[in-house]
Amino acid sequence: MEIFGIPWSLMLSQLLLGLVNGSFYAMMSLGLAVIFGLLNIINFAHGALFMMGAFFAWMGLNYFGINYWFALLIVPVVVGVFGILIERSMLRWLYKLDHLYGLLLTFGITLLLEGVFRSFYGVSGQPYQVPALLSGATDVGALTLPNYRAWVVVASLTVCFATWFVIERTKIGSYLRAGTENPKMVEAFGINVPVMVSLTYGFGVALAAFAGVLAAPIMQVSSLMGSNLIIVVFAVVVIGGMGSIMGSILTGLGLGVIEGFTRVFYPELSATVVFILMGIVLLIRPAGLFGKEK
Amino acid sequence: MNTVAEQKPIVDNDPKTAKKALEIRNLQAWYGESYILQDINITVNQGEVVTLLGRNGSGRTTTLRAIMGLTGARKGSIRIGGVESINLPTYKIAHLGVGYCPEERAIFSSLSTEENLLLPPSISKTEKGMSVKEIYDMFPNLAERKASPGTRLSGGEQQMLAVARILRTGAKLLLLDEISEGLAPVIVQALARMIVTLKAKGYTIVMVEQNFRFAAPLADRFYVVEHGKIVETFAASELDSKMPVLSELLGV
Amino acid sequence: MTNSRVGYSIALAALIAAPFFIYPIFLMNVMCFALFASAFNLLIGYTGLLSFGHAALFGSGAYITGHILSKMGLPVEFGILLGTATGAAIGLVMGLLAIRRTGIYFTMITLALAQMMYFICLQAPFTGGEDGLQGVPRGKLLGVVNLSSDLNMYYVVLAIAVGSFALIMRTVHSPFGRVMKAIKENEPRAISLGYDVNKYKLMAFVMSAALSGLAGSTKTLVFGFATLTDVHWHLSGLVVLMTLVGGLGTLLGPIVGALIIIALENKLGDLGNWLAAATSIEWFKSMGESVTMLTGLIFIICVLAFRRGIVGEIAVFFKRS
Description:
The complex is a heterotrimer. By secondary structure, chain A is mainly α. Chain A has 11 helices and 4 strands. Chain A has helices at residues 8-39, 46-64, 68-89, 100-121, 147-169, 171-181, 183-188, 193-215, 225-240, 245-265, 273-284; strands at residues 2-3, 6-7, 137-140, 143-146. In chain A, the strands form 2 sheets. Chain A has a two-stranded antiparallel ribbon with strand order 1-2. In chain A, strands 3-4 form a two-stranded antiparallel ribbon. Chain A is globular, with a radius of gyration of 19 Å. By secondary structure, chain B is α/β, with parallel strands linked by helices. Chain B has a single domain (18-250), classed as Rossmann fold. Chain B contains 9 helices and 10 strands. The longest helix of chain B is centred in the last third of the chain and has 16 residues, at 185-200. Chain C is mostly helical. Chains in contact: A-B, A-C. Chains A and B meet through helix 6 and helix 7 of A and helix 2 of B.
C-alpha cells in the first residue's frame, strides 16, 4: 500500500523515528520549561548535561560494568546532584540580575563541559550497545517495530506524563506552580523556596540526563551530541511557549513527527524544518502555540 | 452580636510574664536604594488588634512586608513572640507563627481555590489553626467554588480566600494589608465580623487600613505612620479626642 | 572632549606604525573581530538586545565575499560591499522575526535562526560544504592598490575598521542612539512617549548586521578562506565573550575584548605546553588545544565576578577617584 508514492510501512517506521526524536524534544523542552518557570533562567547547559548523561552511562558500562538498566536509574540522580551543585554555587548569585546572565553563565558551563569531554574523548562518537532485552525487532502486523526505539518512546512518554501529573495534580506540584507565579509569597507561607529552587533545577537536569541515557544506544555518544540538540529544543520552546507543561510535551512530540516526515518527503529540509516552522509561528502567532507570555 | 466594646480582649498585660506578640524597635528598611522606613517602633500584645493608619505611601505596607522580610535591607529589631527575626529569611519568619495577607491578595491563578487554601503548610507544632471544615463553615462561598481556578473568584471571595488560607496554618499573628479595599459594603461588614470572631479566638492582628470607618471600631490601639516613622499612637478609648489630629494627618 | 581627541590621535598614530613592530596578520585578525564585537555591542550595549546568532551575519558576509571574489572574479570593492549588504539583508530577516518576541525569547530565536543558516551553509553547493571556500584572491582595491602585500592590506583593513568605529561612535551619540538607549533603560516608557520601539530595534539590528557582514568580508579577504567555523554558534558565543570581557555598552570594550581573546587564542597552545611542563600534567597540553574550555571558563568567571568588563571596571574606577 502506498501513500504519495511512499510505502505504508516506510511511513510508519518514519513516524516511529519521528516519535523517538519527538520524545527527546519533549523531555528536553519539559526540563527547560520547568527550570525557566521557577528560576527565570534558560538553561543552555541542558544540552551538555544530556551529553553528560549519555557519557556517564557509557563510562559506567565500560569502566564499572554498570549495565544500562542501572544507569537509567543512577545516572539521572548523579547528574541531578551535579546540577544542584551548579545551582547552589553559581546560578543563585544571578537571580537578582537580568536573566540574560543566566543564559550566559549556562552557556559558559556548556562550553566548559563540552571542552572537558572533548579533551578526553575527542569528537568521534563512542558506541553504546543496545541492551540485550531490547535488541532486535518485533513484527506487528505490517510493520517491523525496532524494540529499542519503541522502548524509548514508551519510557519518555511515561516520564513526561508522570512529570505532568505530579506538577498539575499533586500538592508538591502546587508548590511548584505557585512558586513559578509568586515565589516571594510562597516563601511568606513558610516554604523553603531556595531549597525548592535547587531541587527543581536538579530535577530538570535529571530529565536531561535520563534522555541522555536513553539516547546512548541510538546516537553516537560524543561531546557534541548535546549542543545541536539544545538549539533545536530552543526552537521547539519558542514554538510551544514555556508556560504550559502539556504544551511543551505536545509541541516536542509534534515537531519530532513533522521532522520525521520531512525526512521522507524532503530530506534536504529535515535539518532546518523546525527552524522554518519557528519562523512561521513567529509571523502568525508570536506568543507561541501554547504561549502564556512571561 | 457582640460589638468590640463588649468583648474583653484576651490580653496578658502582665509585663513580667507576657511575651509580646510583636515588638518592633528602630526599624529601618530599604527597597534597593530607596530608604522607605526610617524609624518604626510598634508593640503589639497577644490578642490585640492594632491598626496602622496613614496616607498612601507613608510606609504602612512596607512595615508589614518588612516584618515578613520581603523588603530589601533591614536594620533594627523585630521580635515575634520574643524571637529576634531581623536576620531571618522569610520562610523562617513565617514559622514563627506569622500569617501574611498582602495588599494584592496574591491568589495563585494556576491553582484551584481549594489548592490555594491548602497551600500554606502548618507552621506551628503547638498551635493548630482552623480545620478545613471550620474554614468552609466560616466561608461557605469558598466551599462552593473550591474547584475553580483561584482567580476566577470575585474580589470579595478572593479576599476571603486570602485570609482563610492563613487561618489553617496555625499562625497566631496575622498581618492584614488593606483587606477591605475595593469591596462592596456588605462584604466589608462580613470581614469586620470575621475580625471580631478571630479576635475572640485569640488571634493577634495587625491591620493596615485606608478605610477608617472599617478599622476604627475593630482596633484596640492605633499607630499613625508618616514618611516611614511612627508619629502618633493611642488606644481606642482615646479615638474621639484624637480626631482633630487625625483629620490633619490623614484628611479623614 | 579634547582629552579623548588626543587619546584617539595617539592610538591612530600607534596603529599606523604598528605593522612594523607586530605581525600584521595578527593585527588584522584583531581588527576584524574588534569590528565584529563593536557591531555586536551596538545591539546589546545600547539597545539591550542579546543576539546569540551574530555568526550568521559574519559568516554570510564572509561566504558571499569569498564566493564573489573567487568564483565570480568581481573586483574587491564589490566583494566587500556585497558582503556588507548581505549581512544587512540577513539581519533584516532575522530582525523581523526575532523582534516579535522580547527578552530571552529574542535571544533564543537569533540562536535558532543562526543555526538554520549554519545548516544552509553546510548543505548549499556554493559554500563548499565542510571544506569551505579556499584560496580567495585579494586582488587590487579599486584596481590600484595591490592587496597581496600584507602591508597594503593592513592599511585598508585599518581604514575600514577606523571608519566603522567612527560610524558607531557617531550613531551612539546621535538622537537615534539616544532613543536606543532610552529603549534599553525603560522600554515601556519609551513606548508611552510615542516611539515606534520595534522600528528602532530593527534599525539597530540591521546596522549591527551590516557591520558584522563587513567584518566577515574583511576577514575572508585577509585570510583567503571562508568556512563553516564562520557560521558556527561557537563564533556567536565568542563575540559575546569578547564584548563581555571588554565591557558591554562601552565604546572601547569590544576592541579591548577582541584583542585579549584573539591573543589568548594564539597563545593558548604555548600556555598549555608551559603548564604541562611546569606541573608534569600531560592533560594541560590538550587543554591548550581547547579554546572551547577556556572560553567557557572565562565566560563563567566574567558573569559571576566581572560583569562590567575591563573597560567598564576602569570607567567605574575613574568615576570613584
